[in-house]
Amino acid sequence: MAQAAETPVLPDGAYGFDWYGATPCRKIGKADLRRFQTCENGGSGFGHVQPLLTCRHGKNDEWVIYANKAQCREEHETMEANAP
Q: What is the pTM for the complete model shown?
């Protein structure tokens, strides 16, 4: 896993959400990336689009980050539709 000190590069317009919580998609910038404790490339995702990064602030959250708002919304909707 990459540590926050090794801030990953994201395209402008990257969006993500915390799939452990009720967080809607929001724009993710450089300052957001620095706050994450760990990030890893990719991840499992929820539908057809693989996330660029999966990042954690702590043990009770996990952010999935996508290249753009449309991908984020699509994956967020898929996650909600498949929730128990």
A: 0.81
Strands (E), the chain: 2-3, 15-18, 26-27, 38-41, 53-56, 63-66
Local mean pLDDT, 10-residue blocks, the chain (84 residues)? 57 92 91 89 80 89 94 92 80
When computed from its CA atoms, the radius of gyration of the chain, rounded to whole angstroms, is 12
Burial label for 39, CB within 10 Å (0-12, 13-18, 19+), is: buried
pLDDT at 7: 60
d(CA 10, CA 27): 11
The structure tokens 């490339």 sit at 41
Spatial separation of the C-alpha atoms in residues 25 and 69, rounded to whole Å? 7
Q: Would you state the structure tokens that stand for residue 34, as one six-digit string?
A: 């620095």
